[in-house]
Design goal:
This protein is mostly beta strands. The protein is built from two helices and twelve strands; from the N terminus they run βαββαβββββββββ. The chain has a single domain, classed as q2cbj1_9rhob like domain (Jelly Rolls, Sandwich), CATH 2.60.120.620. Strands 1, 2, 3, 4, 6, 9, 11 and 12 form an eight-stranded antiparallel beta sheet that branches. Strands 5-10-7-8 form a four-stranded antiparallel beta sheet, with no helix packed on it.
């Protein structure tokens, strides 16, 4: 039997957007200098005591860039008709050393979340998990791809920004090398006009 080429339509995909960010050396030094004296224990690793790290004078320029990029991501995905967008709420640093990890988690009370990688090692990655696995069967495969995987690793590098829905579960496996891994995370929320008065779903934020 002759089988024609199949066309697969990736319906209702979960977007993870990737940007390269130019970080000034003085901004990066300010952020990296929070370790090891200004940190708190986290589940598997440590994070900065400052939970609004982007609100510092030293990071004003970086925050403006990240605000622009997260709204660029929002526009790419939603193409909103009204004047609306995202603003950055909390922001913090993550520090991970050998044998530490990031537990699997989501970001409640946030619309989109993001991670900016400040200092990583070749081979470092982040793992994302399917929000609702398509089935409950364990089927061994010769090749895992976007349609038959319940998790997906994305390789990371310095100055890479990942933006994703805050409901998307993610983790970082145990670090096996001796280098310090540093990232900056932030959450966002909606601001503006949403919905329609006529349809009884209008919301002004």
């Amino acid at each position: 039997m002759t089988i024609q080429d199949v066309n697969i339509v990736p319906l209702f995909s979960t977007p993870v957007l990737m940007y390269e960010v130019e970080i000034e050396e003085k901004e990066k030094l300010f952020l990296l200098n929070h370790y090891p004296d200004n940190i708190l224990l986290n589940a598997g690793n440590t994070s900065s005591k400052d939970r609004s790290i982007l609100d510092n004078v030293e990071t004003k320029g970086l925050k403006e860039k990240l605000h622009y990029l997260v709204n660029d991501a929002f526009t790419h995905i939603y193409s909103p008709q009204s004047e609306c967008g995202l603003y950055i709420t909390q922001s913090w640093l993550n520090f991970t050393t050998k044998d530490q990890f990031h537990h699997r988690h989501t970001h409640p009370n946030s619309f989109y979340s993001a991670v900016l990688y400040l200092k990583v090692t070749e081979g470092d990655n982040i793992t994302f998990y399917d929000v609702e696995p398509s089935n409950n069967f364990l089927i061994d495969s010769n090749h895992y791809g976007l349609f038959n995987s319940n998790s997906w690793d994305i390789s990371v590098k310095d100055n890479l920004l990942l933006i994703f829905p805050s409901t998307l579960s993610h983790s970082v496996s145990k670090v096996l090398h001796d280098n310090l891994r540093v990232s900056l995370s932030f959450n966002t929320f909606l601001r503006g006009e949403f919905g329609q008065h006529f349809d009884l779903n209008h919301l002004a934020l």
